[in-house]
Amino acid sequence: MHNERFGNALALKKQSIPPIWMMRQAGRYHSHYQNLRKKYSFEELCKVPELSAEVAFGPVDDFGFDAAILFSDILFPLEALGMGLRFGEDGPRLGWHLEHPGDLARFHILEEAVDFLKFQKEAMQLTRKKIPSDRSLIGFIGGPWTLFCYANLGKHDGNLVQPKVASLLREGFYKKLVPLLKENIRLQLEGGAEIVMIFDTAGGDASPSFFKDFILPPVRELIKTFPGKIGYYAKALPKGSLELLTSVEGLLGFGLDHRWELPQFLGNGKHFVQGNFDQAMLFLEPAEFRHYLLKWLHPFLELSPERRTGWICGLGHGVLPKTPEENVRTFVETVREVFQ
């Protein structure tokens, strides 16, 4: 049970029409989500498996995306470890912050934390049952570095001085977190995920040297544990860091944001590449949007199907709130129309 186009992209098989999947495709911009949000809290939509499946199903049903993705949040492993988590109008808030190595002793034991996260496996199972059999299913976790930034600061706003210099705290955190993330990935794969993406939002806010020494090692450990099952995405990842990432054996693929010229990375024979239309341009007026989209697609059209292998068409980052649904629909229809 999977989508043929998505499966071909993962397997690096040539095809005319690329699969389409957008990060945050099930979210605040979508009327289906908004209607559910009137009845339920964000936490309920994530933690009640039936509701999570319904949210994930919405955009696949409406826009015809080739893949659904687990509807959840990257911060739940921190809650599973005992840090507390609440979502308000101003975003997520942890119950306490990790400030000293002694705070690590406050974390729950691994077995207890894994048990907490079992709602994600059930959500995956119900999503798999709800979406059409010819659609694929993606899981995800937060990157260890990004989760450390949240655990340490309570947010990720670009000011990462404290997590960058807290070496002992960071390493102690990784030792507690990585075993949990391994089990988190395992739960999602057992629930029906074909791949699991690591969303390391803060991964691009570091030099290649820092990335190599302090961000990549736990990511490499996760990839080594699940070779051929893990994709990676970090916003604004610099060239040097991307080169380090793509040298990791077992990495299935990676996402690129709109800062990159994506066609040069396709057909590499090693990885799928996800991306990378500028999500802000979905706010153009409909006629102007279609014109801009066709211009963006032109370099891809100049490539042969062999040179386009591995491409999963989507956005440079996630769908933004208030994005016009009409343009999302036009995006999907236009891509399939021009590549026939």
Gist of the model:
The chain has helices at 4-11, 31-37, 42-47, 49-63, 76-80, 110-116, 118-130, 144-153, 161-165, 167-190, 208-225, 239-246, 286-301, 325-338, and strands at residues 67-69, 85-88, 91-94, 136-142, 195-199, 230-233, 251-255, 272-277, 311-315.
SSE-based structural type: alpha/beta
Overall mean confidence score, pLDDT: 97
Strand content: 5-15%
Instruction: Count the beta strands.
Output: 9
Highest CATH level, the class:
Alpha Beta
In what order do the strands lie side by side in the largest sheet?
A: 1-4-5-6-7-8-9
Tell me roughly what share of residues is in helical segments: 40-55%
Tally of distinct domains: 1
SSE order, one letter for each helix or strand: HHHHEHEEHHEHHHEHEHEEHEH
The main pleated sheet reads as: 7 strands, parallel
Pfam families: URO-D
Domain Uroporphyrinogen decarboxylase (URO-D): 19-28
Protein name: Uroporphyrinogen decarboxylase
InterPro entries: UROD/MetE-like_sf, Uroporphyrinogen_deCOase
Description:
The protein is an alpha/beta fold and 340 residues long. The protein is 46% helix and 13% strand. Helix 7 packs parallel to helix 10 and helix 11 (208-225) runs parallel beside helix 12 (239-246). The radius of gyration is 19 Å and the shape is globular. The two termini are 24 Å apart. This is Uroporphyrinogen decarboxylase. InterPro entries: UROD/MetE-like_sf (IPR038071), Uroporphyrinogen_deCOase (IPR000257). GO terms for molecular function: uroporphyrinogen decarboxylase activity.
